[in-house]
Amino acid sequence: MQLRTNVNSLKGEIYVPGDKSISHRAVMFGAIAEGTTHITNFLTGEDCLSTIDCFRKMGVRIEQNDTEVIVEGKGIAGLSEPTEVLNVGNSGTTTRLLLGILAACPFHACLIGDDSIAKRPMDRVTKPLRQMGAHIDGRMNGRYTPLAIRGGALQPIEYVSPVASAQVKSALLLAGLHADGTTTVTEPHKSRDHTERMLKAFGADVHVDGLTVSVTGKQRLHAADIYVPGDISSAAFFLVAGAIVPNSEITLKNVGVNPTRTGILDVLAQMGANVSIENIRNEESEPLADITVRTSELKATEIGGELIPRLIDEIPIIALLATQAEGTTIIKDASELKVKETDRIATVVSELRKLGADIEATDDGMIIRGKTKLRANHAVVDSFGDHRIGMMLAIAACVTEGEVTLQRPEAIAVSYPSFFAHLHALQQG
Ligand SMILES: O=C(O)C1=C[C@@H](OP(=O)(O)O)[C@@H](O)[C@H](O)C1
Ligand SMILES: C=C(OP(=O)(O)O)C(=O)O
């Protein structure tokens, strides 16, 4: 696909699609709850459709009409043994959270995904789930898909996770809901807390104490109505675009601003971006706001430590932002990037270099020197099948002089099917 380069201005108002993390959870929790769950502003990205497909294969009735979803929950005991393999597609969240649910189900299920999923470590959940009593087998002793699981009676666990991962935390809490006692998970830094918030909305007893979360076992969930806020990880592409493209002003409406997800806003502020956040509402469950960004003079910054889990999926687009900031930006403590849809340290560095960026990989992040005028002489860049790399490159092209072709742009539909429609609308604005 030929990308639009050297864009003069981006102007307008965008409603980014629903949050991916929250959409997955709404379907999963709805499926194992008792009663009918109504979901609005659901993300129709491929990852969330994989989650729906897996639960339908276990006998759950799910009606999906664009962004409206109705889940006929049957309770955990109402799931049935799938006659087909469960295909998680490209979705790490589906794989890991589903394993947590299946650990409590007394039947056999097989999980497969695409080539990217087959490279991502699943032992971070299969090991503790085995300790709780689930029978799991798979390639490389259960490290990689394909995986087979037979769940059943579970013991609780007190788990100290080596990584700040909401997927690990959520998988163990979901298993813990059905164990015989109290399960606790402690993480090194706080990861996104959508599971904790949504379990409460489904009537569960969840206790949060700093970095430790606990659930008592043998709990039942009760159906809830869930409104999914706009995904800040999708908004991030236009927050950066608005800051770096000349003559721009973009308002992003109804964006989720849960504090465990707003690291990107902290970084934009540190770098001097012209961003205003208005109309913050709904703070009890999942807070929302309208965010406006205007073209900005940017300065370099350092990003690491507890900030990393609060912006982990935004690092590719933050790397682009740093190429347009004066000075040296250092991103560290981010080795988790190596086990995402691609090794995002390697793919960000290789593809931005093709556009002339001064960027180098380190063991746990990258170093970016700015400000660089990006230029391309018929460059061919590649998403490598990673949606966030694809979107980052489309925004990079907006500030590049020359011609840029993007390979495998279709990956973007994993989390933001209307991305190019929104980008074009802002170019007309
Ligand atoms: O729980 C979630 O919904 C997610 C958690 C994060 O992964 P990790 O748990 O691996 O950090 C994030 O990168 C992913 O996009 C979604
Ligand atoms: C890492 C991501 O998702 P997942 O782990 O669900 O594949 C992402 O969306 O950037």
Structural summary, described in words:
This protein has 429 residues and is α/β, with parallel strands linked by helices. The protein folds into 2 domains: 2-17 and 229-428, Enolpyruvate transferase domain (UDP-n-acetylglucosamine1-carboxyvinyl-transferase, Chain), CATH 3.65.10; 20-227, Enolpyruvate transferase domain (UDP-n-acetylglucosamine1-carboxyvinyl-transferase, Chain, Alpha-beta prism), CATH 3.65.10.10. It has helices spanning 20-32, 46-56, 92-102, 123-132, 139-142, 166-176, 194-201, 232-244, 263-270, 315-323, 344-353, 387-398, 419-428, and strands at residues 2-3, 11-15, 33-40, 61-65, 68-74, 86-87, 108-112, 135-138, 144-150, 158-160, 182-186, 206-209, 212-216, 221-222, 225-227, 249-256, 274-281, 288-294, 302-303, 327-331, 358-362, 365-370, 374-382, 400-407. Strands 3, 4, 5, 14 and 15 form a 5-stranded mixed β-sheet that branches. The radius of gyration is 21 Å and the shape is globular. Residues 20, 47, 91-93, 313, 340-341, 388, 415 line the site of phosphoenolpyruvate. Phosphoenolpyruvate binds at residues 20, 47, 91-93, 313, 340-341, 388, 415.
How many helices? The count is 13
Q: Provide the domain count.
A: 2
CATH fold naming of the largest domain: UDP-n-acetylglucosamine1-carboxyvinyl-transferase, Chain
Strand content: 25-35%
Largest sheet: 5 strands, mixed
Hetero compounds:
shikimate-3-phosphate, phosphoenolpyruvate
Low-confidence stretches: none
Structural shape: globular
* CATH architecture grouping of the largest domain: Alpha-beta prism
From the N-terminal CA to the C-terminal CA, the straight-line distance is 22 Å
Q: What's the alpha carbon Rg, rounded to whole Å?
A: 21 Å
User: For this structure, what is the CATH homologous superfamily of the largest domain?
Assistant: Enolpyruvate transferase domain
Structural class: alpha/beta
Average residue pLDDT? 98
Q: Quick one: how many beta strands? A: 24
CATH class term of the largest domain? Alpha Beta
